[in-house]
Amino acid sequence: MSTIAQNLQRVKADLPDGVTLVAISKFHPIEALREAYDAGQRIFGESHVQELQRKVAEMPNDVEWHFIGHLQTNKVKYIAPYVAMIHAVDTEHLLREIDKQAARCGRVIDVLLELHIAEEETKYGFSPEACREFIAGGAWRELSHVRIRGLMMMASFTDDTEQIRQEMLLARHLFDELKRDYFADEPYFDERSWGMSHDYPIAVETGATLVRVGTTIFGERQY
Ligand SMILES: *Cc1c(COP(=O)(O)O)cnc(C)c1O
Hints:
Elements: H1 3-13, E1 20-24, H2 30-38, E2 43-46, H3 49-58, E3 64-67, H4 76-79, E4 85-89, H5 92-105, E5 109-115, H6 128-137, E6 146-153, H7 161-182, E7 191-193, H8 200-205, E8 210-213, H9 215-218
Parallel strand pairs: 1-2, 1-8, 2-3, 3-4, 4-5, 5-6, 6-7
Helix pairs in contact: 6-7
The chain binds pyridoxal-5'-phosphate.
């Protein structure tokens, strides 16, 4: 069995039913994706539009592609025809552009709202208050070509597992609150995307439904 197949098997063994693995293949060559594909992996996450475009053309067409990085509005049109989920919607402006481009393709695109909870300055996303306000405002209800499936976040990059746990729990509690107050009748609002190579076990404990794991499967990225 290839190293990638073994790594995949190890990560999957850590995931209970109801937690889906998104294999984060950014910066890895197509051969690495093929190995994962041959081992049964079908959901891949990428964070750069051009790289995604190239890989889509080279991989079998039953792959489900998730866009996990920061997405510029002017690039939405390139991925709208096929992307299965956009994880990191960080502004209303971006959400509206996704809606517009999805309408052009005759699609409804699944998205997650990105929360900014980590202490790092550079991370994008809605603060928990801004996210709550945005959902409470209700303008998103008119956008019939996007479906808000849930929330996404990245915890702080730290060895302090308690801090990571607290940040993930904050996201979890906001999800539960939004579910109760605005999506109680919408079964599709059911996804919580957090957890990467170094913290996915904590993500599982705190109720993630999608974990985004790259390095543990594919090794270090070659930039
Ligand atoms: C790169 C990336 C990951 C995967 O990180 P690893 O540490 O390699 O598992 C997960 N989520 C996002 C948003 C990323 O950009």
